[in-house]
Request: fold
Amino acid sequence: MKRCYVIVFKLKNPILNQQKLITGIHSAQLWAKIDENTFIISTVLTAEQIRDALLKLMYQGDKIYIGLLGNTAAWYGLEQKVADWIRTNQK
Reply:
């Protein structure tokens, strides 16, 4: 069963590995970008499996949080395509 997760990261040196990490997040196929360092993905993987896969693309001093989202959400100021993605995928 697919579930939605929020992924938030802070990279010690974004120039070094930000694109690799974002490419790893995009491998979930169903994803939405909230801002430069925040994504929502829909996947059958667990939070731990997502973390372990993304850790391979990170360096010492980088930080990441992966949290399971519930059924309800509220937002303001998001792009329409992101809001539509949330409405469609976060169930």
